[in-house]
Amino acid sequence: IAHAADRCASIVRNFLALARKYPPERQLVRLNDIARDAAELLAYHLRVDGIEVKLDLEEGLPVLWADPHQLHQVVVNLVTNARDELRKAPPPRRLTLRTRADKARARVWVDVEDTGPGVAEEIRDRIFEPFFTTKPVGQGTGLGLSLCHGIVEGHGGTLSLVSEPGDGAIFRVELVVAPPAATGQRAAETAPAVTGKRILVVDDERLVLQLLGEMLGADHHTVDTVSDGTQALEVLGRTSYDLILSDVRMPYLDGPGLYRALERRLPDLCRRFVLMTGDVLSAEIQTFLEQTGVPGLSKPFDRGEVRRVIQKVAGA
Predict the structure, then answer these.
(1) How do residues 118-143 score in pLDDT, each as one tens digit?
(2) What does DSSP assign to residue 123?
(3) For the chain, how long is the longest CA-to-CA vector?
(4) Cα–Cα distance for residue pair 133/257, rounded to 1 Å
(5) Is the pTM of this model over 0.85?
(6) Which of 39, 86, 159, 177 is in the most buried spot, having the most CB atoms within 10 Å?
């Protein structure tokens, strides 16, 4: 459930990426794992539609320095599109996920191949345009391939249609393998968590307070919790904290209001302030983060992301 929730949050961030070039959260990734996970996620639907799935995965592929959630979303989207096309085709219906490497060019790729009707010549040049879709009204947004194209380009790769018209469809995602420097960067990111900090969590949801309390306590932080900004101001007036994690929407005094109050009363605490939100698409929140430089922490929480924020704000 936690893994699925994490993916849902990442999908929302990917829509934000399409509009605002949200940067990938990179780590060392194995392309074969991405392909297997996508096939497993959609296995039931493919089986119900009578689609035979073949995994043709080359062993020993070089690793990628990439955002696994974004790449997973790309492959899932391509497989879903292939499924939609195969449902129009007579049996046998076959879908193949194929990975290969060109080590001389430091490239790896995954092909999503189907035996459906293929892509008509007259629309091949338009399929990656935002909002272009061949699906009936109400059944497609036209964002899928455009979103995938943007994600792959954001990784320095290419997404292309490599099949001929009327011969099924093969979409290829080609990516650059991880540079040697990535190993050192990954090591830095996975360094031991910062511990022993005093942290104030401000949120009006009891479950959020409990979750963060347990998560932070496991890293040996001292955690205090309050349910709104006015209570936070009272506590901050008498107790010193290394970090303040505040929700956006709360009664009496919300997160941005708390930050503005700290600017007036306790300006030194502003550099220890982090805003937590589940509404990453809000223009108001994005404007606040950009204007203040306050770090944002997206809900649902990922332990690694929480640790990175603590390292950034309170690690010195």
Answers:
(1) 887 777 777 777 655 665 544 444 45
(2) G
(3) 73
(4) 43
(5) no
(6) 86
